Amino acid sequence: MKQIHDVVIVGGGASGVIAGIFAAQCGAKVLIIEKMKEPLRKLKITGKGRCNITNNAPLADFLRKTGPDPDFLKPAFARFFNDDTVSFFNNIGVNTVVERGGRVFPQSNSAIEVVDKLVLFARAKGVEFKCNSKVKGFIREDDQITGVEIVPNQVIKGKSFILAAGGASYPATGSSGDGYPIVTALGHKVTTIRPALVPVETSGLTAKNLQGLSLSNVKVNVWIDGKKTDEEMGEMLFTHFGLTGPIILSLSRRHNDSIQKKKNVVFSIDLKPALDEQKLDNRLQRDLDENGKMKLSNIFKFWLPSKLIPEFLRQLSLNGEKLSNQVNADEKKKIRKLLKDFRFEVTSLRSFSEAIITSGGISREQINPETLASMLYPNLYFAGEIIDVDANTGGYNLQIAFSTGVLAGEYAAKMALGKQTQDSIA
Ligand SMILES: Cc1cc2nc3c(=O)[nH]c(=O)nc-3n(C[C@H](O)[C@H](O)[C@H](O)COP(=O)(O)OP(=O)(O)OC[C@H]3O[C@@H](n4cnc5c(N)ncnc54)[C@H](O)[C@@H]3O)c2cc1C
Predict the structure, then answer these.
(1) Which residue has the CA at smallest separation from atom 37 of ligand 1?
(2) Based on the domain organization, do 63 and 79 belong to the same domain?
(3) Does the C-beta of 178 come closer than 6 Å to ligand 1?
(4) Hey, which residues does 157 pair with through a beta bridge?
(5) Ligand 1 centre from 322 Cα, in Å?
């Protein structure tokens, strides 16, 4: 008789592959079913091809970067956190380096190295992959899952199951939201899914005029319905449709709901965050005094990247030919204000095809955070982005995938192996 697998995992992404490895290390016979022709397609493009595998922030800081309910992730992080990720990758031959902001990358700067070594290690542990196989749904008998149905019409039996089919972002990598109808068919709730860590569209032509310009060490203040609600420091970029870059992606994640609900959301760039109003005023006055005969279009070069100057002169209704010693107090005040409050009205989020992650997903209410088991089907587990959890950019999302993958993998293995013992006793 054909031996059935102990643990069957739907989805060969970051969470599915690590779940498979840790389940196999517990002694389980593991099968990963992946719809693409190879596993880990998304991992290959992470971190712009460099794969930011985790972030070395301490737990409390790490949790602050995650949402919507950081407590849900505590048991997964208690089992396998960022230091475990680094040790794991070092052990499989991926050396790592820590960069600015605590972001951990492979020393080789190669996501492909990470993918190749993960797959090699998984195979060495006995994990089997069945690629080019799209899962359509689970087969159930009462509260037990007994198998998965693959297109076209093939059933694969197992003892316990992990759904790790990812979210709906970057669908070309295989993560196209298939998991959501699969779990709702089982009676699981799925919260509203939205593109997150996604660029934003802004009104007017200013961003378009500035496309290609990137800014570092700026602060973006977020105003919602006239109230300052958030801020983030770092790098950003102008595009033909609006704004992107690390701080914009993080802010778009945190204010996703307000943007979707069409509230009045303004991202205001503070181009001089290190200087308060008084210090900035002193600096402007000093430059104007010391360069009285200089044209405004030139003196602005002391304060701004060249590409921003025509836009500033236009918004301030100033003639670039005007000399510095002709700038009056009111004009200087307007310059100072614009440097601290360069405003963009956010009109919408870009689509799933450009979103780094999906916010929303399988409701946490029906998942036991200690084991990641379904509360409806004791032999079904969940891992990764398909759960309603998410985080900022910086390596946090892959850590969530790894931590939930390890926890689900080990408990799914224990469940399957426990069953085996009971079955053989019976
Ligand atoms: C461009 C980009 C860059 C990123 N960079 C980083 C980064 O540097 N650091 C970081 O922390 N995070 C990064 N992320 C986010 C990170 O990649 C994800 O959070 C992570 O991959 C989620 O892992 P997962 O296993 O849950 O899902 P996925 O990696 O999406 O894997 C899900 C897998 O399930 C398969 N699947 C789906 N449906 C089915 C089905 N019906 N049958 C069989 N298989 C199915 C898919 O083909 C896919 O292989 C990035 C994301 C993108 C899009």
Answers:
(1) 165
(2) yes
(3) yes
(4) 147
(5) 54
Report the C-alpha gap between 376 and 364 in whole angstroms: 12
- Alpha-carbon distance of 166 to 171, in angstroms, equals 10
Q: Please give the residue range of the domain that contains residue 397.
A: 5-194+359-425
Structure tokens at 187: 């009676």
Give the mean model confidence (pLDDT) for residues 67-95. 97
- 10 within ligand 1 shell (Cβ under 6 A): yes
Q: Which residues contact 153 (CB under 8 A, 6 or more apart)?
A: none
- pLDDT at residue 424 in the model: 44
What CATH number is associated with residue 56? 3.50.50.60
**Which residue bears the tokens 């059933």?**
155
Longest dimension (CA), the chain: 96
Look at ligand 1, atom 41, and give the residue with the nearest C-alpha.
135
Tell me: the pLDDT tens digits for 300-345? 999 999 999 999 999 999 999 999 999 999 999 999 999 999 999 9
For residue 36, give the ligand 1 atom closest to its CA. Answer: 47
Pair 68, 46: CB distance under 8 Å: no
Where is the domain boundary, 350, 374, 409? 350
The count of other CB atoms within 10 Å of the CB of residue 362 is 24
| Residue 354 CA, ligand 1 centroid: distance in Å | 13
CA of 329 to the centre of ligand 1 (A): 54
**If we measure between CA atoms, which residue out of 118, 22, 39, 7 comes closest to residue 76?**
22
pTM beyond 0.85: yes
174 lines ligand 1 (CB under 6 A): yes
Query: Which residue has the CA at smallest separation from atom 46 of ligand 1?
Result: 174
